[in-house]
Design brief:
flat
């Protein structure tokens, strides 16, 4: 066999052996960590399991990365047989609105959950969290409701928007959500105040905090990527609103992560100071985003109104000339 042209072809039975093998040795490694390591043979076994788990995990990740494109094509080809799912893959704006609707429903659940616990336990912490999620729900809800009405009414304007163009409606929704982004830090400030004054925290038990850390960083990175992508792929300002809201929500997960880490591994020294600084930073960035959206939309609304006024005047002048 020519070594230079050798290429490992991944087959089904390779994966059938590799993935269970990887899981078994990861579990063994975790179990051995919790056991007494004073015995030399147990320590040797632990290192062996760690090495095998690391190698097999590397091979598993390689196989997933290698096979992901072909799997993606096959899955998409099957899913896109459905007309709605085909539109979902093809239209970036529609995909954004659908996932925003899912987030809207989840946020609504958080509102009810935290509100009930806050009322029952008379807790400022849960009451503040309920207010925070309520603000997020309203922000996503304005966009979902607008697009929902458009989808149902189709050719007609939603009530109250009959005389407005699409751009005017989008700009007004953009400005409204900018105002709501200014309200978001107010709701969040009560959560931060409870952290600083009473030592409240988002508690994650044991090693689950590291899983939450991975999710938190993923959400922040993904939200930044989505903001950049939305600017390139869509001119719909309501889509931009949803991406900004997603970024603001992702920032709060970093604050949540910090409080969890300090609660799990800190000794309580300067925890209040760190939470106050990070919380202030999150509130500041969110407020700046809101102010930027308000200023940007207000300028564009004035410019659009002026253009439409000029168009109306030109049309009237043309009619007068025709009558003459």
């Amino acid at each position: 066999m020519d070594k230079k042209n050798f290429k490992w072809e991944i087959k089904g039975w390779h994966l059938a052996l590799l993935y269970p093998f990887t899981i078994i040795f990861i579990v063994l490694s975790i179990v051995l960590v919790t056991m007494d390591s004073s015995s030399w043979w147990l320590s040797t076994l632990s290192y062996f399991c760690f090495a095998v788990a690391g190698l097999s995990l590397t091979a598993s990740i390689y196989s997933i990365v290698k096979l992901a494109p072909s799997i993606n094509v096959k899955v998409q080809s099957k899913l896109r047989k459905n007309a709605f799912i085909d539109r979902l893959f093809a239209q970036y704006d529609l995909r954004t609105i659908v996932f925003a609707t899912i987030n809207f429903i989840i946020n609504l659940g958080y509102v009810v959950f935290n509100a009930v616990i806050g009322i029952v336990s008379k807790s400022v912490w849960y009451g503040s969290l309920s207010a925070y999620y309520l603000t997020l729900t309203i922000m996503r809800g304005t966009i979902v409701l607008y697009h929902g009405k458009n989808a149902l009414i189709k050719t007609e304007r939603p009530q109250g928007y009959e005389k407005m163009s699409d751009k005017q409606i989008e700009l007004r929704l953009y400005r409204l959500n900018g105002i709501l982004l200014l309200i978001l830090p107010i709701a969040l400030s009560f959560v931060i105040l409870d952290m600083v004054a009473n030592g409240s925290a988002f508690v994650r038990w044991g090693w689950t905090v590291f899983g939450f850390a991975a999710v938190a960083f993923y959400k922040v990175i993904a939200s930044i990527v989505q903001i950049v992508r939305s600017r390139k792929r869509s001119e719909d300002l309501t889509v931009h609103v949803l991406r900004n809201v997603g970024f603001a929500a992702a920032l709060v997960t970093i604050l949540s992560l910090q409080t969890s880490l300090l609660h799990s591994f800190g000794d309580g020294t300067n925890s209040a100071l760190f939470n106050a600084i990070t919380g202030a930073g999150v509130c500041a960035v969110t407020a700046i985003m809101g102010i930027t959206m308000i200023i940007k939309s207000s300028i564009k609304i004035k410019h659009l109104n002026k253009m439409e006024e000029n168009d109306t005047n030109n049309t009237l002048n043309e009619k007068d000339l025709t009558n003459d």
